[in-house]
Design brief:
The strands form four sheets. The chain has an eight-stranded mixed β-sheet with strand order 3-2-1-4-5-6-18-19. The longest helix is centred in the middle third of the chain and has 20 residues. By secondary structure, it is of the alpha/beta class. It is about 30% helix and about 20% strand. The structure holds nicotinamide-adenine-dinucleotide. The site of nicotinamide-adenine-dinucleotide has 29 residues, from helix 5 and helix 6.
Length: about 400
Amino acid sequence: MIVGVPKELYPGERRVALVPMVAPNLVKAGLEVIVETGAGAEAGYPDAQYAEKGAKIAPERKAVFAQADIIVQVLCHGSNDINGQADLPLFRGGQALIGFLRPLGTKAVLEQVAATGVISFSVELIPRTTRAQSMDALSSMATICGYKAVLIAADTLPRIFPMLTTAAGTITPARVLVIGAGVAGLQAIATARRLGAVVSAYDLRPAAKEQVQSLGGRFVELPIEAKDAQDARGYGTAQDESFYARQRELLARVIAESDVVITTAVVPGKKAPVLITAEMVQGMAPGSVIYDLAAERGGNCELTRSGQTVVEHGVTIVGRINLASSVPYHSSQMYARNLTAFLLYLVKNGKLQLNGNDEIIRETMLTQGGEIVHARVREFHGLPVLVSQEAR
Ligand code: NAD
């Protein structure tokens, strides 16, 4: 089987789906790798490195799509809402596609992907189980985002992070608050701690407390309890507006005392909850920084502008999106390792293993034979249960 790696199309995207160092593993398993010329250049992987590791270089994008049995991408049409559509005519029925497809995004876009006949696998749907841990691309990208958000916040803040005792007096450490202690939040805590800040964090999932503390953060306890805070897959759940109102009220004081707030609170398939109002921003000291990692999902701060950095009431609010792309070398490396683990699982004896009884395959497959086939995604988009799935 041939795995094709086209150059990413999304404007400014610097990542690549496979890096040279994974090619030997794929070749050993009987897969061929074909890479569009220049696909890895922005991430620090020139064509020559791919060739050295046994991959072929295709001079044209069309050739990659024409030759490959499996196309691997970072942002496919679905998550690439700017120009991802340009690839649709290049797909052919029965070809496999693996990448970020935003399954809980727009139904019409998913239907366009389905209509090409590709068997698509959405990395956002990879189960968060021990067995699939090595394939978990969402965690990889969240790790990079949590790290980089802290660096940008530190660079923007007119203060330094560590405590310093100098001949010119003592400098107090910066106070960083992380709201949402999932994968990105935990990495933000670890990074801010390494830079010497005093870090506290809050999450509505009580299970996050121990993880925050193990990284040297203080867990902010609020006297409210979320109903069924965590779903079966480990995600935080949506709460009603009265819960969010109470959260905002209780968080106001901690936010006002923080120099930097990093927010990551999201709920799958829902708009991110607003946890910081304009009034709360006004309560922060001038020069403070909010990095809203939920910006793409509507933002945790009322004043966030997705994709932009704004200054309101003297507070810089960073709503920059697609942050993983700004660390392209390592985000591509991590993503490529996740995809390799998935590919080696999916392809056995030169064939795709499309076993609907296999949890990883069933949970990840989004489209096949012209239809959206993922049961939960169908339900989310209000599509009827497929006849073939009724018995399940
Ligand atoms: P995410 O990106 O969906 O959400 C980020 C965080 O925001 C979550 O911790 C969530 O609880 C929190 N949040 C949501 N609403 C909130 C609110 N109103 N107030 C405060 N916090 C709020 O989460 P994620 O980083 O993808 O991780 C979700 C969970 O899955 C975590 O428990 C993580 O440890 C777990 N996980 C498990 C595995 C595995 O077992 N292989 C892999 C990755 C993640």
